[in-house]
Amino acid sequence: MVVGLGPGNRDSFTAEALTAIREAQVVVGYHTYLNLIPDLIEGKEMVATPMRGEVERARQAVELAAAGKTVAVVSSGDPGIYGMAGIIIEVAGGRVPVKVIPGVTAASAAAASLGAPLMHDFAVISLSDLLTPWETILKRLEMAAAGDFVIVLYNPRSHGRPNHINTARDIMLKYKAPATPVGIVRQARRGQEERTITTLDRMLDVEIDMLTTVIIGNSQTRVAGKYMLTPRGYHL
Amino acid sequence: MVVGLGPGNRDSFTAEALTAIREAQVVVGYHTYLNLIPDLIEGKEMVATPMRGEVERARQAVELAAAGKTVAVVSSGDPGIYGMAGIIIEVAGGRVPVKVIPGVTAASAAAASLGAPLMHDFAVISLSDLLTPWETILKRLEMAAAGDFVIVLYNPRSHGRPNHINTARDIMLKYKAPATPVGIVRQARRGQEERTITTLDRMLDVEIDMLTTVIIGNSQTRVAGKYMLTPRGYHL
Questions:
Q1: Looking at the complex, does the CB of residue A90 fall below 8 Å from at least one CB of chain B?
Q2: Final residue belonging to a domain, choices A101, A126, A152
Q3: Which of A32, A113, B189, B218 has its Cα between 20 and 30 A from that of A6?
Q4: B81 with B126, same domain?
Q5: ipTM
Q6: What are residue A183's DSSP bridge partners?
Q7: pLDDT tens string for chain B (236 positions)?
Q8: Which residue of A has its CA nearest to B97?
Q9: What is the pLDDT of residue A113?
Q10: Total tally of structural domains belonging to chain B
Q11: Is B222 within the bounds of a domain?
């Protein structure tokens, strides 16, 4: 089982995720997530793994499952969106069945904190080029901006690629007005959440790192009081 | 509070959503959703509303909140994705504070049932032209396909627009190979879930209606045993 814990603390888990962890004989995951659930994993076999090393984590999980154990691989957000679901299915190669338990993804969590920016068609793009050619990412940024999508950026900046977000912003400015609202949420729905609503031309003044989700509005997005809003088009 | 119940039954609710409903004095929602939570709403004021009429539902909720009540507007999925969050913020107009509690959206739910189709950048597009010009939707379908996004279609077909899905498929075929995997999930994560993995050229042979979510792969998406998989690009 590949289990999504949602964006935040215990109250972002679904009942189904809790049940999956309770039923598992082995729980595999990054230390940070295991530390959220000490009561649920007490007495179980545990495989705590470092942040990278997804392939090794998947191999361990699949080996344990192939040996007859019920295994839960836990991660934050939705494991089906840039998460562990894919690599587990690849490594399993049909030897063991894989069940994905979805969670609330970062796009939903950041949007909820900002108001309602995703009432309309949107594109989700990761700026990490660790596993994707940068040219592919650039093409997608162009197409999403040309299509007037609301655009959600995952992994907007890391030490290894500090300037990708600048390039992404410049592409946006070819198609979107400088005053387009941009929402920036760090640690969405966690205790230390930081939330800023700014504009496309000023967004780079805000601190953006790997724990941040960036939502860039479409041509209809506006600021409504404290909220970022992409109206759906109702006649009021 | 605008509260997302997730895609399915009680086990798709987050703890935060349950708490919000428990704390509310008034619960507003479509009959179907209120019927899922009889124990949670017992003794509370309720406003059950028909499927359409979102504006009227929002007005009632805001009036009650302005009168000092704690109100929870409940809906399935994530209220921040094509849901009630936007219209509530619009109607509230700053008179009452609005808090959005996110839920697992249909894209995540359908993806989990199919395997791991959303491991890579994706676009979410609604084919409903009730509130969006059809030309805008066509443009977005073109751009998303040209950008080699995985594409998630919400509201793929209704009685009023039975052929939009055919047009969408034809646009996809301009950019994507006929053998591109397509996942079709009806009633994702509910008791009567139906799940099909087919190809772009044959997808119209499958029954598609308003309760269906359609996920069209990118150029890397493949079928891996029983699963639809868009690999992330790990070296195995």
A1: yes
A2: A101
A3: B218
A4: no
A5: 0.96
A6: A197, A215
A7: 999 999 978 899 999 999 999 999 999 988 888 888 889 988 899 988 776 788 989 999 999 999 999 999 998 999 999 999 999 999 999 999 999 999 999 999 999 999 999 999 999 999 999 889 999 999 999 999 999 999 999 999 988 889 999 999 999 999 999 999 999 999 988 888 999 999 999 999 999 999 999 999 999 999 999 999 999 988 77
A8: A226
A9: 97
A10: 2
A11: yes
Is B224 found in the same domain as B128? Answer: yes
Q: How far is CA B120 from CA A47, A108, B151, B236, in A?
A: 26, 17, 10, 17
Task: Tell whether A95 is within 8 A of chain B (Cβ).
Answer: no
Q: Are residues A37 and A75 in the same domain?
A: yes
Strand B222-224: give its sheet, edge to edge.
B115-116, B227-229, B222-224
**Are B230 and A12 within 8 A, CB to CB?**
no
Q: Which of A77, A101, A125 is the last residue of a domain?
A: A101
Q: Check CB contact of B175 with chain A, cutoff 8 Å.
A: no
- Nearest-by-CA chain A residue for B143: A143
* CA neighbor of B39 nearest in space, from B25, B26, B22, B23: B22
| Inside any domain, residue A235 | no
Residues in chain B with CB shorter than 8 Å from the CB of A140 are: 121, 147-149
Give residue B58's domain range. 2-101
Around Cβ B170, how many Cβ atoms within 10 Å?
Answer: 11
Answer whether A102 sits within 8 Å of B91, measured CB to CB: no
Identify all chain B residues contacting A116, using CB atoms and an 8 Å cutoff. 80, 85-86, 88-89, 100
Q: Does B229 contact chain A (CB < 8 Å)?
A: yes
